[in-house]
Amino acid sequence: MEASSQKQANTDGKIFLTADWRHLLLVNYEVNPDILAPHVPRGVELDLFGGKCFVSLVGFMFLRTRLLGKLPIPFHTNFEEINLRFYVKRKEGEETRRGVCFLKEIVPRYAIALVARKAYGERYVSHPMSHILDIKNSALAVNGRVVYSWLDEKRHSIGAKCTGNPSYPAAGSQEHFIIEHYFGYVKSPAGQTVEYRVEHPEWRVLSCKEPRVDVDVARTYGPEFVEPLSKTPASVFVAEGSPVTVRQGRILPEAAG
């Protein structure tokens, strides 16, 4: 359930899970907002950067996972996730809450997908997955590869090479926009909107080169995404990640009817 960062502690809901999210590869594409309109939950609106709408293919490691912040699930604590997400926002009093919505989330274990679907109504599926991370001294190596893949009837993968040293993204940059979203929003089958908060410190990012996306987009995400995801990405980078806390969700009152 990869969402976004939160710099200050809060008490929005009890803890649903804690985990480490590490080595997040983000491949970002500009997309026509009309493609996303049917997927936007009630009570939120698309969040634009420079007047443009973006989706992101994101692969990362989900580590040390504990439900309710306490309970590890045997054989389900460390695994890969790949998701396709887009960016939304809503007003809560004087606060603008920036969040993400997921078009599909892929994990390697059926039980993980089942829990996420039941708890939040998220669009999780399960397939065998693998990854390649070139690590040196506990960090991603310069010119090291980051690759995440899954297998249904064929193998799909996203990958790139890291360059340079990690640094905090500049305010107002595309990297800052992409990772600085603090909430997840889910459109339920009943038409309700569920909001949940994700907390973690600010992430440093690494630049990338030689991105490679080998995905059957029509098969995985639908034919409407073939054209935008066939373009050269608007940006590609890796976020180092950190421990995260995912809060239990709530139905938005204005979207409950």
Quick structural overview:
With 257 residues, the protein is mainly β. The protein contains five helices and 17 strands. Strand 3 (54-67) and strand 4 form a beta hairpin.
Please tell me about this protein's structure.
- The chain is mainly beta and 257 residues long.
- It contains 5 helices and 17 strands.
- It has helices spanning 33-36, 110-120, 174-179, 217-221, 226-229; strands at residues 15-30, 45-46, 54-67, 71-72, 79-92, 95-107, 124-126, 129-133, 135-136, 139-140, 145-151, 155-167, 183-187, 193-199, 205-214, 235-247, 250-251.
- The strands form 2 sheets. Strands 1-3-5-6-13-14-16 form a 7-stranded mixed β-barrel.
Percent range for helical residues?
10-25%
CATH architecture: Beta Barrel
Give the strand content: over 45%
The CATH superfamily is known as: Acetoacetate decarboxylase-like
Layout of helices and strands:
Layout lengths: L14 E16 L2 H4 L8 E2 L7 E14 L3 E2 L6 E14 L2 E13 L2 H11 L3 E3 L2 E5 L1 E2 L2 E2 L4 E7 L3 E13 L6 H6 L3 E5 L5 E7 L5 E10 L2 H5 L4 H4 L5 E13 L2 E2 L6
Parallel strand pairs: 6-7, 6-13
Antiparallel strand pairs: 1-3, 1-16, 2-5, 3-4, 3-5, 5-6, 8-11, 9-10, 11-12, 12-15, 13-14, 14-16, 14-17, 15-16
